[in-house]
Each structure stands twice: as structure tokens, then as C-alpha cells.
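re: ur question from yesterday

yeah so i grabbed the chain u mentioned. its 367 aa long if i counted rite. heres the sequnce exactly as i have it in my notes:
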Amino acid sequence: SSAASDVYKRQEQGEIDWENWMGLSKRAISVLCAAVELYIRNGEPVASRHVARHSGLGLSSPTVRNVMAELVEAGFLSRPHASAGSLPSDRGFRLFVDSMPRRSAPPPAVRRDLAGRMVSMRRELVEDIEWVAQLIAETTREAGVAVRPMGDGPVLEAVSLVLLESRRVLGVVITDDGTVEKRVLDLDRDRTREQLQAISNYLTRTLSGISIQDIEVRVSEMGNSADLDEMQIEACEVAQQLFARDQNDVEVQVAGTEYLLATPDFSEIERVRSLLSALQDRACIASEFRRVFARGKTQVLIGEESQATASGGLGIVATLYFRDARRAGAVGVVGSRRMDYQRIVPVVEYVGETLTQMLETTGASHA
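ran it thru and got these C-alpha cells back, copy pasting raw so excuse formatting
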């Protein structure tokens, strides 16, 4: 098992801070990685004897059985039946993905094919990103996804609320590029000018310096806090109206669903329904992309970690591409939770990096 061997080598070379790995021993993590890799390869519950035989760790079957029992108890594996093998949980997949050594690029043959096809489509990037989703679907044999814009956009400077009449308020948003956007809000009850001023001050103080693209996510996080007073709760309600975005402003393209439907993972009708529901909910995909990319350039979402992947036992691998050092869009794949992350992550990242280069060299200002 290359995953288990890689992890073992990296721990010997001191490349991983094991003390922060959820309290698991080095041996337990290596066994878990071997079990996940076998499950990705075969799609069947993994028995301890198979891990002992294929992991290359030099552990006996009874030793592996004891370690896997510990992993079940800790929630990294699950056992459908007492006499059956084990399945990785979302938590187990997450640890496996986080343990993977990152390859800088796909294999040369895949890289040459991608580069050639992307160069031939260079002119289409301004008008269309559907081909990007199709290209990544054909290369990975998963469903391809392309989303734009994901731009950093202007940054909020100030919020002002002006009383018009009764419960109608004029909301004014000022950004660092000099734009002044106005929106009429309908509140649920009367507010005084003093109350509106307090809300304006709070929103300006809390949200200034944040990209307009990211404010909707930040407001949602604020609203879920348990420590808000009455004024802050009202401010969150006002902000939800003021910064609500039209989902039609975000283009989401999905291609290659047929590749997933042809796999054994989606042979059951309920899983097919969940898959199609997830892929058709473009607004959810756009919202989740905006949320997770606040954490970094490349993201892997697994099962219950995301609203977009929870219902169908799915996984998402996605990365940003840039223009003039600003986020322009995102590309990725949606597939079974047991997709081959070691193969797919480098492909997704390579496509993202190539799109960035295309935008830099073509001056494609609208992508």
C-alpha cells in the first residue's frame, strides 16, 4: 500500500507533526491509511488480513485487527456487521487526505494531454467555462465542476442605514473602489434613527476590510453565534438582506454526471437520487465554494463536512484559479467519497494553475 508506506516514511523523516494528529499513534495512522487505500481501490469492507497482507507495514493480522478495532472505537472506521470488514468514516477519509504527500503535477502523459487540449480552447475561456468542467470530467472520470466568479472583489469600507418611512430603510454600502450601492430594506418592525445608527456602526466595525464576495458567508457565521445581544441579532438580520446575493450572478457548470452513474457506487436508486439532487443544486455548490475557499487555494470536502456532499456520501476536490493575483473562479470534481484523491488532486490543481496562466497571457478580462 503506497499510502501507508508514504506515511510511515514521512513520520520517520519527521515531516508530520504527529502530536496534532487526533491522538492516534504512528502505527494506527499507517494502518488507517492502508485500510482507506484498499477501500478506495476495491469498494468493499476491508478485512484486517488484507491490510496485513498488502500494507507493507510488516504487521501480523492479529496486530492489525487490534489496531483496526481501536480505529473503530475512535470513529475513524465503522463496521457494518460484527463479522464484516471495516469501512472508513468521513473522519477516516479526512485523516487519509491530510496525510497524503502532495504531488506537484499529474503524470507526464496526463499533463501533456491536458496542456494540449487547454491551449486549443484558450479563446473560449472568456465566453464559456463549460468546456473546463467537461475537460476535467473526461480526465478524472468524475463529474467536473467550474464556478465563476470567485473574485476577491471590492472590500467593504462602511455601512449606513437611513430611515425612509415606517419599516422601510435605505441601506448604503460603500466599498474601497469608490462604489456606493443602495438597497431598500423592509424590516420586521419599526426602528428609531438611533437604533439604525447603532446597527450601522456595528456592521461597519465588524465587516469593514472584508471582500464583498465573502461577506454573506461571514454574516451567516455571525448569525450562528450564541453570544449575540439583541442589537447584534438585529444587525445580522439587517445584513442578511443588505448583502444577499443573487445566485444568478454566479455561473456554475457541471459535466460528466454519466461517469458517476456508470460506477458501482451509484447502483442504488437512493444514492442516484442524492447525487443528482446535489449536482442540480447549483446555488448550494456556489455557496459552499465561497465558504470553503476562505481557508485556502485547494480544498477537499468529504461527506458530512459540506452541505453539498452530505446527502450522497460524496466528495469534492476543488481549487481556485486567478487573474492579476485575484480569485477569478474555481474548478474541481464531484464524485464518490472514495474517489482516488492521490490521482485527482494533482489533476485539479494542474488545471487551475493552467487556467491562471491562460488568463495572464490572453488578457481575458471577463473570465
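noticed a couple things. Residues 323 and 357 are 8 Å apart (CA to CA). also The two ends are 41 Å apart (CA to CA).
anyway ttyl
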